[in-house]
Amino acid sequence: MLRAADIRGMYAIIPTPALPGANYYGAERTIDLVETERLINALIKDGVDGLITTGTTGEIATITDDEYRDFVDCVLSVVNKRIPTFIGASGLGAHQAVARLKFASEKGADGSLLGLPMWQPLTLDMAVDYYRQVSKLFPKLSLMVYPNVRAFRFGFPLEFWGAVSKAAPTVVAAKASRAAGLKELIEATEGRVNFVPIDMQVQEFHAISPATTTACWSTGASMGPEPCVAIMKALSSGNSELVKSIAKDIAWANEPIAPILTNLEFFASHNIQMEKLRIGAAGYCTPGPIRPPYDHMPAEFLKASQECGQRWAQITPKYR
Fold first, then answer.
1. Contact 8/27 with Cβ under 8 angstroms?
2. Averaged over 75-94, what is the pLDDT?
3. Which end of the chain, N or C, is less packed with Cβ atoms under 10 Å?
4. d(Cα 3, Cα 226) in Å, to the nearest integer?
5. Cα 81 to chain center, whole Å?
6. What are the pLDDT digits (tens) for 252-293?
7. Which residues are catalytic?
8. b/e string for 12-40 if b means 16 or more Cβ within 10 A?
């Protein structure tokens, strides 16, 4: 089982590529397995250290259980243990999540990106017990907590992290976005949980806790992973000037989507759209149509997302 210290390098978060017509409400078997295989092989060739699937960008909420199994089977067959792979398994309830975890585990997943059940908001005790029970059922599957406050309607307070790190020994990581409170989180979990930052914040995390900032995650990697791979290598080698330079390029590429990222309520309703639009515009991956009901995007933000992807495509050649 992967431990906190084993999670190193750059973890690419990928979309779940969709076939033409996937935006039709009556569509079935919408996974583009050919593009899935091509994308995974390209990412591994271009230096990613790990893979994360079927979270928000991976449209876990929009694919059917049949599609989930088709996609996960394809991903894990193509990866073939070449890099650590965390398969998202969040669901409406615990039984659906456990069925997904069982399938992913049997197919060879190293871990799971796992959020809370999505229908009824959980209390602190419910949330801790959820991860405790999953940890008991899957003692060899590393869990990366997905602390998406708006999706799961839970605040993930400091008390949660202290309790879950003791109750669920397979919780070894968390998908993190902001450096605020990082020291307190590390202390509360006694170093048992790797708080893995987004590529846009990895330098801030490293400045606070260089010893524990061993990895980052990136949805931007599906636009071309080279800048994200480069910033992790620069951090590892202690090249602070190169880190600043790469971070500046990443910030410039993401500048058009700043109004989306800073409007948390709008972002919560348009996260999938923004990601798939910018990924498609960059040209590294063909994500396909956005599955309903999230296939709506105001024109100005559609354009901003596409501009972000186009800018990303401009910076990637510098880091090949």
1. no
2. 98
3. C
4. 26
5. 19
6. 999 999 999 999 999 999 999 999 999 999 999 999 999 999
7. 175
8. bbbbbbbeeebbeeebeebbbbebbeebb
Q: Is residue 219 within 8 Å of residue 57, measured between CB atoms?
A: yes
- Tell me what the pLDDT averaged over the chain comes to: 97
Structure tokens at 167: 């109750």
145-168 confidence digits (pLDDT tens):
999 999 999 999 999 999 999 999
Residue 315 pLDDT level (bands cut at 50, 70, 90): very high
Q: State residue 292's pLDDT score.
A: 98
Q: How far is CA 111 from CA 2, 245, 283, in A?
A: 8, 33, 29
* Contact criterion met (CB below 8 Å) for 293 and 27: no
CA atoms within 13 A on the CB side of 20: 0
> Which domains can be identified in the chain, with CATH numbers?
4-237 (3.20.20.70)
Half-sphere CA count of 67, side-chain side, radius 13 A: 21
Convert the pLDDT of each residue in 30-56 to its tens digit.
Answer: 999 999 999 999 999 999 999 999 999
Average confidence (pLDDT) over 54-72: 97
pTM of the predicted protein model:
0.97
